[in-house]
Design a protein that fits this description.
Elements: E1 12-18, H1 22-32, E2 38-42, E3 56-57, H2 59-67, H3 71-77, E4 87-91, E5 98-103, E6 120-121, H4 124-137, E7 141-145, E8 147-154, E9 159-165, E10 170-180, H5 187-191, E11 196-200, E12 205-211, E13 226-229, E14 236-240, E15 246-252, H6 256-271, E16 278-285, E17 288-292, E18 296-297, E19 300-302, E20 308-309, H7 317-337, H8 342-367, H9 384-405, H10 408-412, E21 458-463, H11 470-479, E22 483-488, H12 492-500, E23 504-507, E24 513-517, H13 524-531
Parallel strand pairs: 1-2, 1-10, 2-7, 4-13, 10-19, 21-22
Antiparallel strand pairs: 3-6, 4-5, 8-9, 9-10, 11-17, 12-15, 12-16, 13-14, 14-15, 17-20, 18-19, 21-23, 23-24
Helix pairs in contact: 1-4, 1-7, 7-8, 11-13
């Protein structure tokens, strides 16, 4: 893939992003589509297919990809179409007894129009390749591959970044802002003096990718996106990377040395029979439950794994990082475009930290019961004792693992409880209000998604033909806040207004409801100042757009 020649690096950019994994690239797309000049610095010249890492792109991430015009491109590249399987199977092996099954998992099936995009199973490298292409296609977006950020000096007006290239040469670049998306070993995090707080699991795990021609012919449980294997020889989690011969697996409680030595034995244990297999890559790891003590120092921010780490169970890690990138991306753009005030950037940590902390809690809860905790006698027995053991195992699986695979309330139901740019409701206001929550989705009569009508910046939804919101429109115009007005007058708008409890709805660029009411507010200027992060502005000095 073409990249910027380090000898011709720009001396200054608006935003420099350290790390070109999915989170850094997502931030570049969010910024680039808004015309912000950004630079992505990434050590890897090519995307590695050896370690697929994340495999689950949840509904919310797919909604962002749709907004960027990339959802269909990613689905076309994904080796496993969403229609291929929506099941998770628990079994004694791929050729053994089935113990339990979850269907309609991970947002892979429509839910009555609750979202415009279902989830997608895809290796992380597919997402990275699509996002790299998107960054290259945008004029403001630039990739510097084969280089890394080795120094960050935050000043009052600019950040000076030292970039080291593959040939050992170094280049200094200044930026208005820096985003550290450089992972668990983040240089940016170290440079701003932030540190992880939290702990890690005691038990090691051994990940690998292997190729096994003909293995599918012996799988007795049908297609599934995950198979949880419960047997003493190989308590593991395994799944297909494609519909032919390539698989990923995680052996629970297996350290690096044992895994490297016994990888073939683990594969045979997962399969439940001797197999022809070739190990393509290995990835030993231990789960970490950590979050940084602060995500910002002046003009430098942290996102993704550089800011927080959680166990992978439930598939939340990468998706949470994409959420970080979207949140910080539109907010930095608002400030750089001139309509965002100081509270906009202050809101990044206050809004994202509760999300990240909840994800860590949920993923840690999912980790409490793995294949190792489900081991029991007689699971393979072909007698009454075996029947009892399998029934008991199935009941325990359903009781302890359902939340891991059916987590849409977590993914779609998160609500911003406290933010300087989300106005507080009246004292005693019902907590079910939509303020601070994702705008509920609606398919229109012509089949379009309401989300496709929303503007790139702020959007004012007017529900019903007789409703006026002129004071809000005038206030936004005076303050230089870009506002798209969408009026819905079709029959569905009535029910939608009843659902929201309001006929006027203000929506942020990230599809979050930031204000709603049946009439324009008494002081529309004050409302717009809060939404644009300038609640303490001088009323006599309108900000230039």
């Amino acid at each position: 893939m073409p990249s910027v020649d380090h000898k011709r690096l720009p001396p200054h950019v608006q935003v420099l992003i350290a790390g070109g994994g999915p989170v850094g690239l997502a931030a570049a797309v969010e910024l680039g589509r808004r015309g912000i000049d950004c630079l992505v610095v990434e050590p890897r010249v090519t995307v590695s297919r050896a370690r697929p890492r994340c495999k689950t792109l949840n509904v919310r991430t797919m909604e962002h990809l749709r907004r960027w015009g990339l959802a269909e491109r990613l689905r076309e590249r994904a080796p496993l179409p969403a229609s291929w399987s929506q099941d998770v199977v628990f079994c004694t092996s791929l050729t053994g007894r089935e113990l339990s099954r979850f269907t309609g998992v991970l947002g892979l099936v429509p839910d009555g129009g609750r979202f415009p995009e279902i989830g997608q199973q895809a290796p992380q490298y597919v997402l990275e390749e699509v996002l790299r292409e998107a960054v290259e296609e945008m004029a403001p977006g630039r990739l510097v591959l084969g280089s890394k950020v080795v120094g960050v000096s935050d000043g009052d007006d600019l950040v000076t970044v030292t970039v080291e290239h593959g040939d050992g040469q170094r280049t200094a670049v200044t930026a208005d802002y820096v985003i550290g998306c450089d992972g668990p070993r983040s240089v940016v995090r170290d440079e701003i003096g932030a540190r992880y707080v939290g702990g890690q699991a005691l038990r090691p795990n051994f990940g690998m990718v292997f190729e096994s021609p003909g293995l599918w012919e012996h799988v007795v449980h049908g297609p599934a996106v995950q198979y949880w294997v419960i047997n003493a020889a190989a308590p593991a989690l395994v799944g297909p990377l494609d519909r032919t011969d390539t698989w990923w697996a995680i052996g629970f409680g297996i350290d690096r040395e044992t895994g490297e030595r016994e990888a073939r034995k683990i594969i045979d244990g997962v399969a439940g029979r001797p197999t022809e297999a070739k190990v393509l890559s290995t990835d030993p790891w231990t789960a970490r439950m950590q979050i940084v003590d602060r995500m910002r120092h002046g003009r430098v921010f942290l996102a993704g794994d550089a800011a927080h780490l959680n166990p992978p169970f439930g598939g939340h890690g990468l998706n949470t990082g994409i959420g970080d990138a979207v949140d910080l991306g539109w907010k930095l753009a608002a400030v750089l475009e001139g309509w965002g005030g100081p509270d906009v950037l202050d809101s990044y940590e206050s809004e994202r930290r509760p999300v990240q902390e909840r994800v860590i809690r949920e993923a840690t809860a999912n980790m409490r019961v793995l294949s190792t905790e489900l081991l029991a006698d007689n699971l393979e027995a072909a007698d009454e004792a075996g029947d009892r053991a399998r029934r008991a195992a199935g009941m325990r699986i359903q009781e302890t693992k359902k939340a891991e695979f059916h987590s849409l309330d977590l993914i779609l139901g998160l609500r911003i409880a406290a933010s300087p740019i989300v106005p507080a409701g009246p004292e005693g206001q019902d907590e079910t209000t939509w303020t601070g929550a994702r705008l509920p989705h609606l398919f229109l009569a012509d089949g379009r998604s309401l989300y496709d009508l929303l503007g790139a910046d702020m959007t004012l939804l007017i529900l019903g033909p007789e409703t006026s919101a002129a004071p809000v429109e005038d206030a936004a115009r005076l303050r230089g806040v870009p506002l798209t007005v969408v009026r819905l007058s079709e029959p569905a708008a009535v029910g939608y207004a009843e659902l929201l409890g309001a006929r006027l709805v203000l929506v942020r660029p990230d599809q979050v409801v930031t204000w709603l009411g049946n009439e324009p507010p008494g002081d529309a200027l004050a409302l717009v100042d809060i939404l644009s992060g300038d609640a303490h502005r001088d009323e006599t000095a309108p900000r230039s757009p």
